[in-house]
Amino acid sequence: MGLSRDVAEQYCREYPNAKTHTLSRKLYEENKKVYPTVNAARCAINKVRGKMGDRFRGIDKRNGNDALHQEAVLHSSPFEALPDPIADFSECRPYIVGGKRILVLSDIHFPFHDKEALIIALEHGRKMDVDEILLNGDILDCYALSRFVTDPRLRDFGKELAQTKAFLHLLREQFPKATIRYRRGNHELRYENWMFVKAPEILGIKEVFEMKAILGLDNLGISWHDERDYWKVGRLNIVHGHEFGRGGGVNAARWLFLKAKSTSMCGHFHRVDSHSGRDMEGKITSTWTTGCLCGLSPDYLRYNEWSHGFAYIESDGHNFAAHNHRIIDGKVY
């Protein structure tokens, strides 16, 4: 395996007791030029640890690497000859949010934002002295890159980026000490999908292909999260909402309840909803969907049930209190 094996051996020596799944992800994240997927990293570690059958265990023992196997339960199977998968579809990973006073904003959709509603949400965050801000997807619209029929007079992707960057700079300026996290929503995903079709030749150039780099998040100290991450505030799981596929129904929070099957919050549906259910053992599960901060009557959907809103969450690291606020006539409810 050459370099791939050498790097995997180094990690196995440094972290002999680490679980294969954990070590594989670390190996991949820190060596993406060597391992194209997490699964490729996992295969390399399995081979080093002797979990790929007798042939690899024999090579390891001849090379004096048997000490690397102390974490593995060694057993072989003729089915190890099956081909490796070409993509990694391992489970999603929880990301612990450590803030105590957390502001959750979603669905701003620059340049179609509602300036008054956005100011009200931000002022509330300043009033509550938030120490963490979660930008929960669809912060910019990517209108110009939509696959739907759009008004050519409004297609200006450069303007969308400029307004989003201006917002992010202002956010960092006004909340200099706060942790800020940005989740990719389905509208940010429009850019990547467009690039897959229009410019696959530059797939590996991060500066022009990845939204994180285009928005300059590293320079602002803003972390980037994709659909593999779901935020956790105590028992509360937070996603954008598109990760579960289409839906929403009459009560979007109830739809989330049926999909997530856990205490959860999402945006995406532009509606302030909540739902709670109790199982036969008495355990309460609650879900919330947050409102949007964009205009409420776009050309493609003049009449709808959208509502302006945002969430404020208080947490001590274990317990939490979610305040799912609605904005009506310039007031927070």
Word description of this protein:
By secondary structure, the protein is an alpha/beta fold. It has 11 helices and 13 strands. The protein has 2 domains: 3-81; 94-332, Purple Acid Phosphatase, chain A, domain 2. It has helices at residues 3-14, 20-30, 38-48, 54-62, 115-127, 157-174, 188-198, 206-209, 211-214, 217-220, 252-260; strands spanning 93-96, 101-105, 132-136, 179-183, 222-225, 229-233, 236-239, 264-266, 273-278, 284-289, 309-315, 320-328, 331-332. A 7-stranded mixed beta sheet has the order 5-4-3-2-11-12-13. Strand 7 (236-239), helix 11 (252-260) and strand 8 form a beta-alpha-beta unit. Helix 1 packs across helix 3 (38-48) and helix 2 packs across helix 3 (38-48). The longest helix has 18 residues, at 157-174. 35% of the residues are buried. Residues 52-62 and 67-74 have low confidence and may be disordered.
